[in-house]
Amino acid sequence: MDYRLRTATPGDDPWQLAIYASTRTDELALTGWPRAQCEAFVTQQHQAQQQHYRRHFPHALCQLILVDDAVAGRLWVDARPDRLHVLDITLLPDWRGQGLGTRCLRALMDEAAPSGRHLGIQVEIHNPARRLYERLGFLPEGEPQGLYQPMLRPAPAPQPEECLP
């Protein structure tokens, strides 16, 4: 499945909210709250997340993941000297389980490798996506931090240069 990334703009805020809301659906179903209360809560939480990312990771890039012209998800990446750090990768439900997340992460691995950078991510301890990260070579980085486990995919070891005759 081919995809492309496009830098998110303020006009993409409805997509950003929909993508975020898709991650909270199961949790909110357990509350018994009226729909309007769920929507207000998700909107507030989404805005808080956006503000947090912008305040603490001012150089991070937020991109929409597009398949053809359809929005499939979003990817927030903070490029650091020693690593590319994935702040968030989220696919809309219709795009999950099709290998798109794997392709996005492999592209980041390919981007990080030439400069010897690691690839980092924080994942909720019980998030099923953690299995994907482990399959791709991510390892726990230190102890869990509350509900989150920092994970790191180490940069590949530099290959020795071949001797030329």
Automatic annotation (TrEMBL):
Domain N-acetyltransferase: residue ranges: 3-156
> For this UniProt entry, which residues form the secretion signal?
none
Q: Which SUPFAM superfamilies match?
A: Acyl-CoA N-acyltransferases (Nat)
InterPro entries (UniProt xref): Acyl_CoA_acyltransferase, GNAT_dom
Q: Which residues form a coiled coil?
A: none
* Superkingdom in the source lineage: Bacteria
What name is this protein filed under? GNAT family N-acetyltransferase
Q: Which organism is it from?
A: Pelomonas cellulosilytica
